[in-house]
Amino acid sequence: MPREEKKKSAEENEKDRSGGISRREFTIASMAIFGAASVGEGKAITQVANKKLAQPGIASQATAKLPLTSSARKISLTVNKWKYEVYVEPEWILRDVLRDQLGFLSIKDMCNGYGACGSCTVIMDGRPVLSCMTFAAECDSATIETAEGVAVDMQDLIEAYVMNHCMQCGYCTPGFVVTAKALLDRIPKPTEGEIRDALGGNICRCGTYTQHILAIKEVTGNA
Amino acid sequence: MYGLKEGEPLYPWLWPAPEGGMIGKRRVPRVDGYEKASGSAVYTRDIYRPGMLYAKFLRSPHAHAKIKRLDTSKAEALQGVRAVLRYDDPGIQWPKLSGQALVSDTNHWYEGMVGAVVVGESEAIVDRALRLIELEMEELPVILDVEEALKPDAPIMRPDVDPKSNHRPRFGPYFKYGDIEKGFAEADKVIEWKAITEHDVWAGVEAHVGVAECRGDYLDVWHHGQNWLTMMTGLRPYSPLNKIHLYLPYNGAFFGGSSLIASHHTAEVAVIAARRTGCPVKVLDDESHFVGGDEDARSRYYFKVGFKLDGRITAVQLRCYEAWVTETTTNKIYKGTSIPNIYITCDSAAYTKPFDQCFKHGCSTVRVTTQVWEHVAGELGMDPSKIAQINDGVEGHDMAYVNEHVKKPQGFDTARDSCKEVNELGKKIMEWDKKWHLPGTKILPNGKYHGMGYVSTVEWAHTVGTGGMGIRVNADGSVDLLATQCDGGWAGQTAYSQIAADEMGVSFEDIRLRPFEGRDGFVTEPGGGSQGLSGSSLTTVRASRKMKQLILEKVTQPTPLRRTLGNLMPSRPAFFPNKKPEELDMKDSVIFEKAHPENKKTLAQIAGALTYYLFVWDYTMAHTGRGGVEHEYGMVRQAHFVEIEVDPDTGGIEILKQVSVNDGGKVINPDAFNGQQYGGAYMGLSRSTKETLYFDPKTGLALNDNLIGYPVNVMNDVASIDCAIVETGLGYAPYGSCGVGEDGGACNHTIMPTAVYNAIGKYVDSEPVTPDKILKALGKA
Ligand code: FES
Ligand code: FES
After folding, report:
1. How far apart are CA B552 and CA B614, in angstroms?
2. Could you tell me which CATH class the domain B300-462+632-777 is placed in?
3. Can B44-140+202-291 and B300-462+632-777 be said to share one CATH topology?
4. Distance of alpha carbon B387 from alpha carbon B373, whole angstroms
5. pTM, whole model, 2 decimals?
6. Which atom of ligand 2 is least distant from the CA of A172?
7. Mind listing the pLDDT tens digit for each residue in B234-244?
8. Any alpha helices (H) in B307-431, and if so which ranges?
């Protein structure tokens, strides 16, 4: 079930810490300026249109009907080449919608949604983005790729990851895989410096960093 | 002994590893690799049950306070809230472990402590309900320093535990060996100094979570943790243990335990909430990365060391607070040196510090040897690696004694000298002899100080453990290793599969470690990871050998006429008639006659023709498994080296190169072994240079308890890491192997003071070694 309040509590936390305007307030203010969304209580509408097309092999975790407010809007997403339509509230976070509603469990959360770890990375319209820092409402018509999709699309990358022990506990690994795929889409034969720059924002507490460089070089023949 | 090959010695460390197979091979595909890379690996946070509720904690907003009023009525009234479990609920007995608790059972609250648990239909509802709870508290004094808490006039922090004193002993009796006064009397020189560590935390990966579901009389629990046994024991109050199913999915790294209190109690709270609501409950403790502190967080060490002018150390006296340096935590200065006189006292106090965590455990005790080598070498103007070599030994004895009285009778190779070998190899890779210099004597053309750091100590996962494993051959010839999983990322599944493949003669691809509940006897990795492979490889070898023997026996016997599911099954002639098991062998899942290899059958053919599974199990106690040897000595060593530059203007450290050399005895999976080396180096260097929580001295609250404020190493923080392996066969596990797991993380945690001393010629024995401390030592701040 989406966590419509999670962002609020995280923002309040952040506000407590910073003593100033929270990131969410700032973003919502910007959204209002650009007319992207307005926040307000309204008559509840029920039901979420979830998957238009169920994807085989991925379990949906959307088990309950969600009471939505009138500010909810329908967005369509293409995730790993499958099309979905889903109602979202303005403050819902992309990570929660993809993971909790659509069942893409490869999307993780190591930093409690602070935008610090990269484990929630997805490729959106060709660019790696932190799904914990992205409002779902802003993603209408977006094309998204998660690690589940990379595993189908770029099998040699996954194989190189397995052979080079790019994972220990593995919790950060899907985030690295997705970031690496985005890099290879952009630069088919990256240099070591480009690999380091691209993956420099992902945290691996197990310290597998050295291996990602080897795996990516192996898959591009740059070894 | 069952499983012993003919002519083989009783001691498993003397068994030769099968040649030409998977053991010791590089580029073996990790068996958990595809799942983890593709995102299909299931962690406890990925468990969802139909009708599942969510629970979260109301934590103490103060570092130390007393509750005056807790009003949960508005939260309880919120639609979608199913229960609010309060600390003072008379119907609940909140769990405790070693006197510590996650949920308070008094009105005294501490930072990190939980006072109420809200259970609701969604995370959003729970978050909203938490904000509706009204809480009035009276703030109480905060003491952030263990030594402050021990002063006679300090306010009593836990009157409920002891109304007179804050003092707490730390893990049992003080450690005494030899005659400390005699040791000082024999010394040419005696030096004293103090070292401190600040507050590093797990800053973990998958935050704590527990899921519980009651099914009639039965209880299912999913636990994010590594230690099946202690978790199961903790569940005793909730159900007869034979009605509990305890699952340990993959772990977003724990590194050995994180906080046992927090992780175990999170699962237990899930059970309490599931019982109360009648629904499955997932408890999410999102803040748990930063609650608590490492085993050595906020420790103080007072050293007094006596030594001869040739570098031989005669006495080590250590008074420490908070650090875990007792014998129970494998006191490395005792286990791995010839120092004859040692006296260590460890104390703690009740003060404002939440639970102990423990991750890449062992840094407290490694720090003792690191500090001693550094200071004795510093006083004598010597290379610290030479001090380590001079004082190498085991439990107060030098290596000549060990060769004669330990290695020889136990069959180890007396020609191997682990300390010498790891040092020589590491120094060669680092070009140590060319680069090392006297402290504070090398300034580079760029104006920076150049420094070389060094740590060496005993490998502590060198022992054999008690454990069990079952093996089943399925009807298609595939093989299940039935073992408990406590995956923390060190590729134990892969290594067990490699051993089983080679010992059985089954293809590696056909083997799968099937995580199995330990209640059925197959408690593999019972220690929760620290000594996983070395501890449990013995039972893996024995179970594999039993299975091979069973297969070779079965194929030489006819199958009699029998009734299965009411059908009369015809008798079947033996697959290898008139042959004896010893005339056959199995390799790559093919059984063949040794004298006529063309006479062969695949394991799949045989398993498919049987109407039953082939199954064996093994349970081996450590002391019987190691052939009656009572005591295992630490003869395997490791050494870590680092090269840095220190900017004299900013105090900044740049890590140029790191080298880790570990003696694995006999390495099963070199890639996974290396993984623990470079992984440990990344984490250890991070803890040594930057990781600490900062606390507001007035309120006692942590100021940087999130991954934005708390710095951890990322890809570009270490320029180069070289990992090398030595294999002396001096471990006690089969083939002479020993584990490596947490060593690199613990050792490199203690390395930076040595490198900085070598760079600037001044001691900065305070970890992490941050720029401000360096500037202060240089007289610039
Ligand atoms: S969850 Fe950490 S960056 Fe998104
Ligand atoms: S593999 Fe564990 S955090 Fe990266």
Report:
1. 11
2. alpha beta
3. no
4. 6
5. 0.91
6. 4
7. 899 999 999 99
8. 332-335, 363-380, 384-390, 399-402, 408-410, 418-430
Look at residues B395, B398, B371, B399 and name the one whose alpha carbon lies nearest to residue B175: B395
Per-residue pLDDT reduced to its tens digit, B412-433: 999 999 999 999 999 999 999 9
| Cα separations in angstroms, B523 against B159, B493, B526, B615 | 40, 14, 6, 17
Residues of chain A with pLDDT under 70: 1-67, 223
Distance CA B737, CA B541 (A): 13
Q: Which of A166, A206, A212 to mutate to test the pocket of ligand 2 (most atoms within 8 A of CB)?
A: A206
Please report, for chain B, the start and end positions of each structural domain, with discontinuous segments joined by +: 12-30+464-620, 44-140+202-291, 300-462+632-777
> Contact B582/B562 with Cβ under 8 angstroms?
no
Q: What is the pLDDT of residues B320-363, one digit of tens each?
A: 998 888 766 668 999 999 999 999 999 999 888 877 778 888 89
Please indicate if any CB of chain B lies within 8 Å of the CB of A150: yes
- Distance spanning both ends of chain A, measured CA to CA: 44
**Would you call B244 helix, strand, or coil by DSSP?**
strand
- Determine which helix (DSSP H) or strand (DSSP E) holds B283, and give its type and residue range: strand B281-285
Segment B637-658 mean pLDDT: 97
Task: Report CB contact under 8 Å: B707, A211.
Answer: no
- The residue of chain B nearest to residue A1, with distances taken between CA atoms, is B122
> Which among B39, B130, B289 is the nearest to A147, CB-wise?
B39
> What interhelical angle do A173-186 and A192-199 show, nearest 10?
130
Nearest residue in B to A60, CA atom = B48
Domain B44-140+202-291 has CATH 1.10.490.10: no
At position B716, the amino acid (one-letter code) is: N
Fold of B12-30+464-620: Aldehyde Oxidoreductase; domain 4 (3.30.365)
- Residues facing residue B644 across a β-bridge: B451, B655
Contact list in A for residue B226 (CB cut-off 8 A) is none
Residue B639, strand partner residues: B456, B661
pLDDT at B556: 96
Rounded distance, CA B613 to CA B603, Å? 12
The domain covering A33-148 belongs, at the CATH homologous superfamily level, to: Beta-grasp domain (3.10.20.30)
Nearest ligand, CA A116 = 1
What are the structure tokens assigned to A176, written together?
């690295």
Question: Which residues, in sequence order, are CB contacts of B409 under 8 Å at separation 6+?
Answer: none
- Alpha carbon A32 to chain centroid, angstroms: 24
Alpha-carbon distance of B39 to B707, in angstroms, equals 22
Closest partner CB to B205 (pick from A104, A110, A165): A110
By the CB < 8 Å criterion, does A161 face chain B? yes
Cβ atoms of residues B183 and B341 within 8 Å:
yes
pLDDT band, residue B282 (cuts 50/70/90): very high
